[in-house]
Amino acid sequence: MRDQPKPVLRARGIDKFFAGAIALDKVDLTLYPGEVHALLGENGAGKSTLIKSLTGAYHRDGGTIELDGTEINPRGPVESQKHGIGTVYQEVNLLENMSVSDNLFLGWQPVKRGMLDHRQMHRRTREILKGYGLDIDPTQLLSSYSIAIQQVVAIARAVELSGKVLILDEPTASLDREEIELVFSVVRNLTARGMAVVFITHFLDQVFEISDRATVLRNGCVVGTRKLSDVSQGDIVELMLGHHLEATKRKASHASPGDTILSLKGYGKRGMIAPFDLELRKGEVVGLAGLLGSGRTETCKVIFGVVSADHGRAELRGQPIRLNSPRIALEKRFGLCPEDRKTDGIVGDLSVRENIILSLQARQGWTRPLKRSRINQIVDEYVKALDIRLASPNMPIRLLSGGNQQKALLARWLATEPDILILDEPTRGIDVGAHAEIISLIERLREQGMALIVASSEMEELVAYSSRVLVLRDRRQVRELGGEEITTERIVKSISQGESAA
Amino acid sequence: MMRSPRLALYITMATFVLAFLIGGSQYPTMFSSRVVANLLTDNAFLGLTAVGMTFVILSGGIDLSVGSVIAFSGVFLAVILRETGIHPLVAFALLLMITTAFGGAMGSIIHYLEMPPFIVTLAGMFLMRGLAYVLSTDSVPITHPFYDTIQDVVWKAPGGGRFRLIGGIMILAYIVAMLVLHRTRFGRNVYALGGSSATARLMGVPIARTTITVYAIGGGLAGLAGIVYSIYTSAGYSLATVGVELDAIAAVVIGGTLLTGGSGYVAGTFFGILIMGLIQTYIVFDGTLSSWWTKIVIGGLLFAFIMLQKALGWATTRGRRPASDSATQS
Ligand SMILES: Nc1ncnc2c1ncn2[C@@H]1O[C@H](COP(=O)(O)OP(=O)(O)OP(=O)(O)O)[C@@H](O)[C@H]1O
Ligand SMILES: [Mg+2]
């Protein structure tokens, strides 16, 4: 497929410096027409920075970029778009205050007699999104649709704008298998037409499924470019981390959970999640499995009181309790690490340190500030424990790489030392190394007697740490799996068949 | 925070109709074409200012200088027509260039120096007011015959209403603004900027150009409002139109535009202006109420509309559709 030696895009010696850090050090990247090129590396390795430097979103400090043999110098996303490079940046999605078709067509709207042609815009939006299996109203505000749909719209926009190169920075992080399938088929169509696609992700299965070659970054340097047909996943992981990684296996010792700490009976909220029962014991991890929109996030939110339940009873350590606000949950030593870190989690302009102690301070009350030394001790401890890569804890958290923001958010909740910790997609956007660390962290917390509820779309991960798995489907709990039943196959089967609760 | 912007617009329109009906049921003469004509004439300069303010607020900014710009414009015109022999139309053109450039300059400072619009336009407000004082501290009458000609352009409607040119200019400005905001790329970029400037940048919106243009439009329309005001009063006075920027902001908010930017309609602002004018008219008709009641009612309305926006935002975010509802199952 790649016998033509002329690259579409060739970047040489790309440098990027931030105050106090070298983010990219003489990075080379070559893209051939018709290939899917994976860009891999740990959190903070510099993948997103490379993309931003290539497309002009950042001003690069050195290096040249050639497109089809001629040097280009895009000074901003507009110019790179004009050159035919379409990009979906990590995190920054789209404009929630505008309609779906506005988002898809912003900057290249069809014009008729000097005025925007809304009718054509809406029609074409429908057509384009049909290709991704979406049948939605283009005139509605983007904010009225889920994150997954927004992500698909962002991809569709980049695809439409890219004539030569399409860059996708963690596009599939919030997508389901079915949607990923559609995105991949679009990508295959594009490469068949001779386009080059850059694909950044932490899901190695997806990398091997769709990509032809991979370039691996470590600490801002390229450590290798490989043809994926020649290497194994283990090789790539070793290249990324610089050392070998043990495969995560299910631990056998899930035997002895303690007393029941939280008991929910007929708990639910109309329109969000059908009534369910849950007995949560100390020292166990209850996994929530299911597709996107199956009610995983809703379950987490109802338990934490982000939305108050309208059915059922809750008992905490045998005492009836009303969990109708996060404030109460926080007082009772619950923690919830939410799924959508951009809107529900981080406070971008506050420092990493402030973000980490936010919840702890909130529980203490703002009138009783934590001691400076104590804060530093907590922050240092978690930065070390979770291996958060940063120049200094004083830097605004928005400057951290996506995965490191996620880790800082996790640190925030761990710092409150909760009795019950709810994690919604704790490993989204986290690299393989940190992924393994978080899994072992969950195990450690469980052994220390914490009760955890973890929602995840990754089956292997659930299998690795869950004592029990609740399978959700269409906002309803359909099955509970325990002990020997917890295998990837069983979970997948329960999700797809929706066998009724035994 | 998201909400349904259209609903807010409809509520503003309904409020206007309701207020009109209530006023009319007490004072049937309020339904006359005379009242309507006066509503447009008396609020023309404020209406024009509010159009510019809508652009600025939609883009996520604020412009506090407009009241001073109007006063400056009045004094500038009065003095230049008194001192020189140039034709008022030339003076108008000159003034519009000055105020547009002034707005553009504020926009450049806001963008390139990354200063908060509040501070920059506050400085602009003092600067313009100061310049007006420098030109003249007294009220300067305008006696040019061309002003009489303009004032004689009147369309007499059945029922005794006299629709003047300046009201027409205001309505025209709203129509043009609507077309620009909804039917041009620039207009959509204004909304994008107000939604999130970081996202808009990555989506390819020319942030610098859009920001500067938005404030230039604000300044230009304030200059036009100044011209209209000088026609309306036939004078220029440096102490005039103090606090008009706040009235304009109030009209924009009552019109359903979100103060944080990115959401709203210029048509809403039009009804915001009409509602405020209506309250004033009602108080004049009543005769016993102090004119300060206007401020009190507007204060109450503002509060009510902000609460309403909160409620709408809350209602729409709760109704977010999950992925599984709209993905076509294959
Ligand atoms: N504006 C900035 N100022 C200072 N440092 C920055 C800035 N932007 C990024 N960095 C740092 O540069 C490094 C590379 O970040 P980048 O976002 O490129 O990582 P990444 O490979 O995309 O990681 P992830 O997989 O977590 O998304 C990180 O250590 C980050 O903290
Ligand atoms: Mg990244």
From TrEMBL, chain A:
<keyword id="KW-0762">Sugar transport</keyword>
<dbReference type="Pfam" id="PF00005">
    <property type="entry name" value="ABC_tran"/>
</dbReference>
<keyword id="KW-0067">ATP-binding</keyword>
<dbReference type="InterPro" id="IPR017871">
    <property type="entry name" value="ABC_transporter-like_CS"/>
</dbReference>
<dbReference type="GO" id="GO:0005524">
    <property type="term" value="F:ATP binding"/>
</dbReference>
<feature type="domain" description="ABC transporter">
    <location>
        <begin position="9"/>
        <end position="244"/>
    </location>
</feature>
<dbReference type="GO" id="GO:0016887">
    <property type="term" value="F:ATP hydrolysis activity"/>
</dbReference>
<dbReference type="InterPro" id="IPR003593">
    <property type="entry name" value="AAA+_ATPase"/>
</dbReference>
<keyword id="KW-0813">Transport</keyword>
<dbReference type="InterPro" id="IPR027417">
    <property type="entry name" value="P-loop_NTPase"/>
</dbReference>
<feature type="domain" description="ABC transporter">
    <location>
        <begin position="255"/>
        <end position="499"/>
    </location>
</feature>
<keyword id="KW-0677">Repeat</keyword>
<protein>
    <submittedName>
        <fullName>Monosaccharide ABC transporter ATP-binding protein, CUT2 family</fullName>
    </submittedName>
</protein>
<dbReference type="InterPro" id="IPR003439">
    <property type="entry name" value="ABC_transporter-like_ATP-bd"/>
</dbReference>
<dbReference type="InterPro" id="IPR050107">
    <property type="entry name" value="ABC_carbohydrate_import_ATPase"/>
</dbReference>
<keyword id="KW-0547">Nucleotide-binding</keyword>
UniProtKB/TrEMBL annotation, chain B:
<feature type="transmembrane region" description="Helical">
    <location>
        <begin position="163"/>
        <end position="181"/>
    </location>
</feature>
<keyword id="KW-1133">Transmembrane helix</keyword>
<feature type="transmembrane region" description="Helical">
    <location>
        <begin position="239"/>
        <end position="259"/>
    </location>
</feature>
<keyword id="KW-0472">Membrane</keyword>
<dbReference type="GO" id="GO:0005886">
    <property type="term" value="C:plasma membrane"/>
</dbReference>
<feature type="transmembrane region" description="Helical">
    <location>
        <begin position="265"/>
        <end position="285"/>
    </location>
</feature>
<dbReference type="GO" id="GO:0022857">
    <property type="term" value="F:transmembrane transporter activity"/>
</dbReference>
<feature type="transmembrane region" description="Helical">
    <location>
        <begin position="7"/>
        <end position="24"/>
    </location>
</feature>
<keyword id="KW-1003">Cell membrane</keyword>
<feature type="transmembrane region" description="Helical">
    <location>
        <begin position="44"/>
        <end position="77"/>
    </location>
</feature>
<protein>
    <submittedName>
        <fullName>Monosaccharide ABC transporter membrane protein, CUT2 family</fullName>
    </submittedName>
</protein>
<feature type="transmembrane region" description="Helical">
    <location>
        <begin position="89"/>
        <end position="112"/>
    </location>
</feature>
<feature type="transmembrane region" description="Helical">
    <location>
        <begin position="292"/>
        <end position="312"/>
    </location>
</feature>
<dbReference type="Pfam" id="PF02653">
    <property type="entry name" value="BPD_transp_2"/>
</dbReference>
<dbReference type="InterPro" id="IPR001851">
    <property type="entry name" value="ABC_transp_permease"/>
</dbReference>
<feature type="transmembrane region" description="Helical">
    <location>
        <begin position="118"/>
        <end position="135"/>
    </location>
</feature>
<keyword id="KW-0812">Transmembrane</keyword>
<feature type="transmembrane region" description="Helical">
    <location>
        <begin position="212"/>
        <end position="232"/>
    </location>
</feature>
